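Repro:
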Amino acid sequence: MRIATWNVNSVTVRIDRLLAWLERSGTDVLCLQELKCEAAAFPADRLRDAGYEAAVHADGRWNGVAVLSRVGLADTESGLRAGPEFDGRAEPRAVAATCGGVRVWSVYVPNGREVGHPHFAYKLRWLQALRETVTADAAGERPFAVLGDFNVAPADEDVYDLAAFEGATHVTDEERAALAALRDTGLSDVVPRPLKYDKPFTYWDYRQLCFPKNRGMRIDLVYGNRAFAAAVTDAYVDREERKGKGASDHAPVVVDLDVR
């Protein structure tokens, strides 16, 4: 089974690229983030024609998540259990499904904006709610993973230049402690291999030629339980999909599993 995660940065704008990538990559299950469309506007028909069912959690703002599967889609769940709100609303940032016997959550962790901002505190609360939501699945016997845009670089080597992020979000001790607490539920970081250069960055800002200069970050993560990690045969960042006109600022992270 081939499972992937991708912050597509607008599924309607990039639907042609998405369909082409699905066909080219042979992906069976794809976790999407930052849909930027209402659930009713999600291109489910075009994906169904390509062989994929979809579990969608979206409201038309800059959030929105989905799980696409061509190996079955069951036991879907939208939103975190007892998840926090921001500005009086629960944002659509998490959706789960069981696909071919593998349980996955597609998550889009809040950005946090600035250290000390209310959105930063919300981010930490959201990560705590994620931990509480997935604890039982993480400890289970079936393959299980949380995949998505975590908006946190787990370690110093996961950013191109730590000094460039001094005082900023994504690299703080608080955010990394929240990730460590999530891993402590029984999950491990499935680190992909890069297709170019020495670090598996997954995000490059559109500005200041960050992509051609490889000024990136590894913030799109795959955290799998023991059964999931044991089934991994390969993992890589599809950096090629970040190239060209109309690309997302994130690249897909692809994981191959032997779950026979």
